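Appendix C. Worked example: Phenylalanine--tRNA ligase, mitochondrial
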Amino acid sequence: PSPPTIQLEGRHYPTDEWTNLPSHISSALSRKLHLQPSHPLSITRRLIESRFPGPTYQYHNNLSPIVSVHQNFDSLGFPIDHPGRSRTDTYYVNKDTVLRTHTSAHQADTFRSGTSDGFLISADVYRRDAIDRSHYPVFHQMEGARMWSRDGCKARGGVAAVIMEDIESMPKHGINVEDPNPPFHEKRNPLQVEHTPEEAQAVGAHLKLCLEHVVAEVFGLARAGAVAAGGAGAEGASEEPLRVRWVEAYFPFTSPSWELEVYWQGNWLELLGCGVVQQSLPKNAGVPDKIGWAFGVGLERVAMLLFGIPDIRLFWSCDKRFLGQFKKGEISRFVPFSKFPPCYKDIAFWLPRSGSSVGGQVSFHENDMMEIVRNVAGDLAEDVKLIDEFTHPKTGRKSLCFRINYRSLERTLRNDEANSLQQMVKRVLVEEFGAEVRE
Ligand code: PHE
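Step 2, the predicted output written as structure tokens:
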């Protein structure tokens, strides 16, 4: 049960049955890693910003993470039953207020303010999620958008013509792009009724070219770094041209939509989502005459590749051996200080029959386990996996088994420390979820 109010960034918010904000999350609000000048996330942010110069683009790096459900979901056209809205996926301050799950939460307001043709919004975002080396419940995104006024382009042949001119004037990037997708597709990736085919095609082409330039720059630097450091993937990296590909996607607030993937050390990695802005957004924001594109890129993903950072928890480290390695404006390869040993612990338990209610809790989601472990072990938890699950044929009770990997990035964890963390996890499962631990 939560206290009647919680204080966040100096304001009191009433709590209710939707509140699910643990203290280890609310304490992250003040870190603002993307604003620490020599932090790799800030260096990455500035590198991308340099590809989108003012005055065309305005930067917003200080917007509050506490937003309304309306901003985060409704304003973007998320249907009422969208899974992203559930308490298992999103941190609720109360029924009307969430920690933003993406920087798109600020699109509508920024369109409404209408102070520039384009913007970049960098910010911390919050999602309940798995625990492993590339997932953390707090991460950072950069939202980008570019809009054109149809009226303002009339004298120059219309929006599509103006955009095509801009495209012609952009330099070549020399990377290898696979894009088998049509500019839009009637069923899979439709043209909006408000747009002409020429407009959608021009906006989409401009969007893709701008983002290809970002990738060419960022990955050119990352590969140069990997080659210089002689690290994994360095062999052949200098000769092989960079490969990227566009994949059709779906977002409620863009159409057509795509994702951009890069081929990196043997795998296709998803880097960002983007598309042609749904006309309902500028319309509802009082600028119906504007048309354009938006993208959202995960900054940790980019920074991990750029600096060779192997574990997402490192971004949160206050250890000088981590922070001392980076300097404002410089891309360098992370040098691991040491690999400390892992400590694996399994835990198996029965859940109460569904329908029975213990401590107000009636169901158990995998993300509830993640949350318990985060709360107890903080950054000492490296990875949590569901390794077994079955339902007893007679009693109908469900049994789950999780394997937790405890490991500190800064020192060797003692076995008795891991044991006592494990004991605490068990206690929470029993007391808050009515679980019966199987020994
Ligand atoms: N907000 C989307 C996400 O977090 C990314 C996105 C941004 C997609 C802007 C389209 C346009 O997945």
